[in-house]
Amino acid sequence: MNTQNIQGKDSMLDELSLTIRNDSGTQKLCPHNSNISCASCRLNELCLPIALNKTEIHQLDEIVERNRPLKKGDHLYRQNDEFRSVFAVRSGSFKSYVLSDTGQGRVTGFYLPGEIIGMDGIASKHYSNSTQSLEHSSICEIPFSQLEKLSHQLPNLQHHFFAIMGNEIAKDQQIHTLLSSYSAEERTASFLLGLSSRYARVSLSPTRFLLPMTRSDIGEYLGLTVETVSRIFTALQKKGLIEVNNREIELTDLEALRAIVGVETC
Amino acid sequence: MNTQNIQGKDSMLDELSLTIRNDSGTQKLCPHNSNISCASCRLNELCLPIALNKTEIHQLDEIVERNRPLKKGDHLYRQNDEFRSVFAVRSGSFKSYVLSDTGQGRVTGFYLPGEIIGMDGIASKHYSNSTQSLEHSSICEIPFSQLEKLSHQLPNLQHHFFAIMGNEIAKDQQIHTLLSSYSAEERTASFLLGLSSRYARVSLSPTRFLLPMTRSDIGEYLGLTVETVSRIFTALQKKGLIEVNNREIELTDLEALRAIVGVETC
DNA sequence: GCGATCCCTTATTCTAGATCAATAATCACT
DNA sequence: AGTGATTATTGATCTAGAATAAGGGATCGC
Hints:
The structure is a homodimer.
Chain A: H1 7-21, H2 54-63, E1 65-66, E2 75-77, E3 85-91, E4 94-99, E5 105-111, E6 116-117, E7 130-133, E8 138-143, H3 144-153, H4 155-181, H5 184-201, E9 208-210, H6 215-222, H7 226-238, E10 242-245, E11 248-251, H8 254-261
Antiparallel strand pairs in A: 1-8, 2-7, 3-6, 3-8, 4-5, 4-7, 9-11, 10-11
Helix pairs in contact in A: 3-4, 5-8, 6-7
The first copy, chain A, binds a DNA duplex (30 and 30 nucleotides) through helix 7.
C-alpha cells in the first residue's frame, strides 16, 4: 500500500549492494522502486511476463501487487499460512525453510531476482514452508486465483506457468540426486555453480558475487554442517578454484569446479 | 495399439499380485484391461479426472492414449528423450532414475497407481530422467500439448493440474528435508509410511503390501547403501515395528514408526 | 527343472563428515 | 566507538554409515 516514504534509503542500499556484486559496476538490476510495471521491469524476460505480448503483459500487470520492500529477516509468509499468492523476486533474495521438531530449521531453497516463490502451497492451499528475506528485498505478489483466471484467458501464460512449475520439479529432482549421492565437496561446488548461472541469468557476474546467505544456511540446504561448508570453502580456496572473503566470493576456475561436480561442461 | 491378445495372462498376473497386496482379498484395483475409460476407471477420483464432471471426463477420455501394458523392466521413456506426454499409472509401479557419470543410477522417484509421471520434462521439453516399470504395469498416456489445450477449455482441469504439479513440488521439498537431515532409520521409516499412505489412497492395505522395488532401489532413493537399508529393515523387525519377508512387508506398529520420523501423528 | 544371475543379509573394517570446543571476525545497536 | 550477538574458521575427536567381503536365497531364462 504505502510504499513511497522509504524510497530514499532503499535506493542507496540497493545501489551499494549492486555495485559490489556487479563486475561492470554500472548497470542497475531492477531497483526496489515499487512503481515499475512488468512492461518496464528489467526482469520481464526471465520472470512471469516471458513469452507474453504487450497487451498480455498489461493484463498481467493489472493483477500484480507490488508490495512494500522487505527488510532482512522479514517473512514473506510462514509455514501453514493460508496460500493466497505466488511471489516473484524483484530484487534481493530469500530463503525458504521448515522447522524440524527439534526447533532447528532446514533450508529448502534460495530465491534470486526473477524467480518464483510459493508454489509449494498450491496443492494443499497452505504454504509448506516459511520464507524469509535474506537482505533488503522487493517482491511482486501475484494472487493465485487471479493468475489462474488470467492463465485461462491467455494460453501463453498458462503454458509458461506450467513450464515454471515443471522447471521447479526438474530442479528439485536434481537436488534429490545431489543430496543422495554427492560428497560434501561435490555438493558445495555444484551449489556455487548453480548460484553462478542464476546470477548470470539476471546479467550479473557469474564469477564474482556476494553470498546472500550464511554458511549455516548453505549447510542446512546441502545437508552439511556449517563447519564442513567452511572447511570445503577453504579447501577450494587452497586449490585455487575460488577466492572467498566472508560473503564475497569469486569463482576463479569454473572448469575445475565443473570437473568436481561431474562431466558435462556446458 | 493391439492390446487384446495378451489379456488372458495379464489378468491372471494382476489378480495374483493384488490378492497378495490386498487385505480384503476381493476388490480389484484398476485391471490392466486397456479398454477401460476414465469414466469407469476405479482411479478416477485420484487421478486426472478428479473434480471434473461427466462431460469433462469424456473430453479428457478422448485425448488419453491407453497403451499396451509394460513388462517389468520396460522403459516408459529415457533420459533426454523428447518430452511429449505425461503418464498416469493405471496399475503396477514405476521408478524414475538418472545415471551418474560413473554409470550407476540414482533413483529419483517411485510411482504407484493414480500418480502422474513425467512432469520433469515440461520445462525443458526433454525428460530429465529415465522411467522404468518395476512389474507388469499399465499406463495412460496424456499428450501434453493436448492436455494444455484441454486445460485451456476446462478451468477445472487447469486448476487440478496446477494442483498436481504443486503437490509434486511440495513432496520434493519434503524429500529434500528428509535427505538433508534425517538419519538412515528415520529415512527408512518415513519411506515406509509414505508407501503406506499411498497404498491407502488407492484402497489397498496401508499396513501390508509388497515392495515393488529392490533394496538397492530404496537405497538409491534414500541416499543409503543396500546394506544399510537391509540392516535397518532387520533392526526395525527386531524392534517389532515391521515384519519383512523378502518383498512382503507388514507395518505392525505405525505409531512407533511415526515416532521415529517425528512428532505429528496424523 | 536347472544353472546363472541378480538380490538380500550379515560381519568387519574404514572414513567422510558430524560433534565438540575454542577463538576470531563481523554485524547490529545504542 | 563500544558492546553483545551473531557468524566464520580451525582443530581434535567420534560415529553413522560406507566399503569390502562373502555366503545363502530368490528369480529368470532356457
